[in-house]
User: What shape does this take?
Amino acid sequence: MKSFTEADLSEACSAFAVANTPLFLLRKLRKDPTVLDISRSFRGEQILEEFKKAVLQEPKNLEETVRPYVYLVALANEPSDEYLREVAKIESSNWDWLGYMIQVLLETYTPTAQEDIWVPGAIVQAPVTLSSDAPVNDVQKIVLTDN
Amino acid sequence: MTVLGMKSQLRLDSRQGNQIENETNREPPRYGDTEQIAQYKKNFPSGNHRHRPTNATRRYNCHGLTFASRRTWIWRAESIQQILKEDDYTVVDLIDVMPGDVIVYYNSGDTEHSGVVVNVNNLSVPIILSKWGPCHEVIHPMAECPYDAEKIVFYRIVT
Assistant: This one.
């Protein structure tokens, strides 16, 4: 994702539209791949900046309504809770449940880190001995190597 | 800016006379609410579902329908627990469920949804009347709704 406008907010909108409680919305956003994508694509400062813009804006559609919540949960994926603490200082009392959600995220915050792990290996065709009439196609296995 | 500038709290007491925290919101439906209802009608077509001709509103939610006669929005899990305790609800086994009982959908400690049993079909599946967040009211089989509840419990007031 190169820009915040590219974010697919359809799942977030659907969750917001039937949320009876803030914890329901929180659970849905934590599972939303778009939220994870935002966390991976942008730095904490950038997400915080978008959050500030979003809460100051008068929402004109459902997408604009859910943006602050999406950015908030994306900030909770940062490796430090400094951004959540920053968010807690921003006036957002006009937004449904936002203060409550910030409080919950701060109380349940667990430091996380993302790392790409490279597993040395190669995909090779495994020798297959057919002992039944069932068709066997494209049998492959991963062989770990030392390099 | 006023997103929620039209909120207030009703006097809403439990049987024991303690206030239940609530929030009633008089703002008109928001952008997207009506489209969302259309989407849910598409995702949950009539047949198993009956979509009541009620509009999107934030005056009440599912818990407000179930426990407060459609007058207000109750959103804290603690408030639902308070109602269940102070209003003397007792747990009912699925096999004994009948119209008039209440269903509560739990997930990770949250009371994510609730409704009123209006029927039990010929497969012994309870049919529920509930409201889906700020969207409309729906009559649906208990498991066919947007709420992925981990645990469902039925309740009844006996006395």
Remarks:
- The first strand of chain A starts at residue 121 and ends at 125.
- Chain A has a mean pLDDT of 84.
